[in-house]
Amino acid sequence: MHKSFKIKENNHIQQIDTTFLKKRNIYLGVKRDDLLHPLISGNKWRKLKYNLAYMRKINKTELLTFGGAFSNHIHACAAAGKEFNITTHAIIRGPELDNNNPTIQFAKHCGMNLHVVNRIEYRKRHETEYLNALQERFPNAYIISEGGTNEHALLGCQELVQSLPEHNYLVCPTGSGGTLAGLIEGSASTTQVIGIAVLKQAEYLNEEIKKLSAKANNQTNWQLLTEFHDGGYGKFSPELWQFCQDMSHTYNLPLEPIYSGKMMYALWQLIEQDYFPSGSEIIAVHTGGLQGLNGLKYRGLI
Questions:
Q1: How far is CA 298 from CA 6, 86, 101, 147, 158, in A?
Q2: What pLDDT digit, counting tens, does each position of 227-282 carry?
Q3: Helix axis angle, 42-57 to 178-186, nearest 10°
Q4: What is the C-alpha separation between 78 and 176, in angstroms, rounded?
Q5: How would you class 57 by CB atoms within 10 Å of its CB: exposed for 0-12, middle for 13-18, buried for 19 or more?
Q6: Mean pLDDT score of the chain, rounded to an integer?
Q7: Cα–Cα distance for residue pair 78/81, rounded to 1 Å
Q8: Residue 1: what pLDDT?
Q9: Sequence ranges of the domains in the chain
Q10: Which of 103, 113, 250, 259 could be stapled to 173 by a disulfide with Cβ–Cβ 3.0 to 4.6 Å?
Q11: How far does the chain reach from its first CA to its final CA, in angstroms?
Q12: Domain 42-148: CATH architecture, name and number where available
């Protein structure tokens, strides 16, 4: 008997209440998608939900995906495998596996099968020939790309919008562009949708988002801000990490400096610069990924 691919949805919006916002007449609510599930959090669950349904539809019984050793996506897929009793495989970028890494330990604990490859092989992860060879090697596996972004992922991110209170700005951190594309698809044309790129030289994502979202091609109510990457993917300044800690202490809003912390820090600076007009109602999406803090601690980065 299949376990249904459902988790209890949580529509928690946390209002940030501070004179910094009040004096500018701005409402800021944080959509706490990090609280969706204790282990499969935020946009990773949004992206997996309809992928798992599609996997079942095409009669595949296993899941195969790709990621680095500290990947939130790997963590979420491993957790989903345990939760829904699915055999999971991950092609991990090597060259070797560090068994003390908390993400790897967790994946193993969930029963995920880890296949370590060197960086040269890992670069082939988008190539049809390589993917066909993997499909032959794992005939029962449904293959999901690194990060989990595809057309099925968009449906889950689109759904997020339907649960939100009224707002005229919707902001999210952007890595692969899937969450932003889904939010554009789900939003009214009167809503301004803003992605904060978490990696360097992310301008190319504009084209990726247009490939994913038909609305993104036809509407001008969205933009990707690329100047808040703070050094590049996985990098962050002492100021950004201090901001994350301050938000946690002052507003009880836990953040990590790779995704949601970067977005909130950018948002704070934009508000400071009076980017948003008086009367703006902003919703910022906390996409989860707090498990990444363990990896940063393990590497001595925080």
A1: 32, 29, 7, 22, 34
A2: 999 999 999 999 999 999 999 999 999 999 999 999 999 999 999 999 999 999 99
A3: 80
A4: 20
A5: exposed
A6: 95
A7: 5
A8: 33
A9: 13-38+157-298, 42-148
A10: 259
A11: 44
A12: 3-Layer(aba) Sandwich (3.40)
List, for residues 175-232, the tens digit of each pLDDT value. 999 999 999 999 999 999 999 999 999 999 999 999 999 999 999 999 999 999 999 9
What fold does the segment set 13-38+157-298 form as a domain?
Answer: Rossmann fold (3.40.50)
Two structure tokens written together for 9: 């949805």
Q: Is the dihedral of CA 8, 57, 44, 295 positive or negative?
A: positive
- Tokens 């400071």 locate to 272
Residue linked to tokens 């928690």: 12
**β-bridge pairing 113-117 and 141-143:** unpaired
pTM for this predicted structure: 0.94
Overall size of the chain counted in residues: 302
Q: Across the strands, what pairs with 283?
A: 29, 170
- 41 sits in which H/E element: none
DSSP state letter for 101? S
> Of 260, 263, 258, 245, which Cα lies nearest the Cα of 296?
258
Same fold, 13-38+157-298 and 42-148: yes
| Whole-angstrom distance, CA of residue 186 vs CA of residue 161 | 6
Report yes or no: 184 and 222 within 8 Å, Cβ to Cβ. Answer: yes
pLDDT in tens, 150-161: 999 999 999 999
- Cβ within 8 Å of residue 92, ≥6 positions away: 66, 67, 68, 69, 74, 104, 114, 115, 116, 117
